[in-house]
Amino acid sequence: MVNPKILCLEAEVLTNILEYVDDESPHTTAGVAQTCKHLNHVVKLVRYRRLTVHWDQKLGHWVDWAGRKQEEWETPELLQGLRHLTVRGGARLVLRPERYSETAVEETYANINRLKTVVQNIGNLKTLVWQVGCLPTAEFIQTLQAYQPNVKMELHRAKRLEKENRPLESEKALSTATFLSTFSMITTSATYIEDTMIFQMMLCSAPNLKFASLISPEIRLGGSVGSEIASLQSNFESWLPQAQRTPSSSLCHLTLDGWEVSSGCLDYWSQYVNFASLKSLKCSRGLVHASFFERASQVLTNLKSLSINFGSDSPLFGRLRIQRLATAAEHYIATCPPLLTLSVWSWRGKVPLSTILNQHGATLEELQLHEREDPDGLSLRDPFSVEELRSVRESCPRLRVLTIDLNRTSRYLGIEDYEGTLDELHRFNLDKIQIYLDSGMRWLRRRAQNQFASDSNIEQSGHLVDDDQTPPLDDVSLPSGCHGDIEFEEAKPFRIETGDLDLGPHIQDGFVFLQPPSTHKDICRFLIKAWKIIFASKTTGPRQLDLKVGEWESKIQPLLLAAGRHSMREIKVWCRARPHERDDMAGECAVEIDCCGGRHRRKFASG
Predict the structure, then answer these.
(1) pTM of the model
(2) What is the H or E stretch that residue 183 is in?
(3) Where are the domains of the chain?
(4) 349 with 326: CB under 8 angstroms?
(5) Domain of life here (predicted)?
(6) Strand pairing report for 84-88 and 50-56
(7) For 281-316, how does the pLDDT look when each residue is reduced to its tens digit (9 = 90+)?
(8) Beta-bridge partners for 512
(9) φ/ψ bin of 313: left (φ > 0), alpha (ψ from -120 to 50), beta (otherwise)
(10) CA nearest 412: which of 486, 546, 519, 527?
């Protein structure tokens, strides 16, 4: 029974309330529509606020989530209430540089321009998320500017429409567009000079750009690549004259993926970005130098968020280089202005936890500390200890997001092995937690070695043994999806004498046990139980728990998996638990799981 007082509210007031409800819980909005005619009418006003369309190559149309063609979903009722539009591309819509041809380019232009009528007829579009994979056409950009003056455009991971040694008309139009707030670009090895110049042009010209990201092949500022970068600067004059070029002061966040992280990198990009106004910087996949931290203290004076990946300690780097890097990094973290967000990959041996907490603990809202799993399977990283967790909790009263590493003690992931850690996490007041688990690389390495027993250069060691732990009850109803998961259902640990090779944790009577990869059921069972310990008693907030088994973000397949017998499924697994949206499912969670590069995503609920 609906409270009569609610029904007395004007439709406009109820619409504002339901817009908030729809953002937080779309299923709740659908339920409200079934209560009475008045609320059913109001729900119609907010039902079409969000729409995602993508290009379907087989149909040759832009289709919605239900597979309807553009002429079917592009209705006046939908367009009048639409406020947030997401456009995604397809494999055939985006051209590779080697496939550029006049006919193919014209076809791509025509397909993108089909969306002009959508932009023209939307009542009041607030955000446009462009995930097509290529830049929009000049006609589309001009139409958007003319018909949607209040829109904010987020353009993600785009490539150029054509391979030209000059800026295209669409790129010129986009660089001066007032609606562009986010610009993310992917460069290729064949075109990264032109791609980088386009990115620089956007930085210098887009008046309201807030977020910029450049994903490049690995670029170092010395050697032959350095000379190409120098020529890039001279060529840039013909693309954007010096008189029209000023470093961006509107930019709040910059991501440089693949660039060498050094003082030279900061000096180079200071030509296009006013670092004094920058609030957030992320550097990944680039070789980190001590000079970066020495220069950063001078130019990154107002930074509130820093994300950096130190990478692995290769013996080729030399001990003195690593020591100098660690000294410079620790000094910068200990002396830079207090940060709100800090993310450090491969942090152990570089930046002590005590240094982070002493300087930034009082202000930190997000802390991500992750140690990369050894791709060769030779060693096991150090997990985050209960004592370290306690020191973080006591030092960071404002912390809402946390990332840590844990190691598996058994393929079954028994919840009792992590009671101290989970109890400590429960004492936090966190919104989101991300936990990295080892994937079983050491076990896979030993299996690969034993498969080559006939090779005199490879020593066969270690024996498969029965696991002394009792398998858990089959209490997880996991939707079917990845048939390769059966490969590890009957897998047994390897028992290795500690005098042989890998010294590691969980030594029992002179032996160390290498655990096989966990099955999806084992992972989801652990996720659900861990979520209930940490979040089930809480009633507000996102309460999100992510598990990442292996280096989920890495695109590189470890070499040892290519030797001998291939795994039937990828060993990297991602899964997430969040509160169930239904009121009668309080204390239960909704679960997503993904593996094999996104090909086997499934959803189900606990309870």
Answers:
(1) 0.87
(2) strand 180-186
(3) 1-47, 49-246
(4) yes
(5) Eukaryota
(6) parallel
(7) 999 888 899 999 999 999 999 999 999 999 855 555
(8) 496, 507
(9) beta
(10) 519
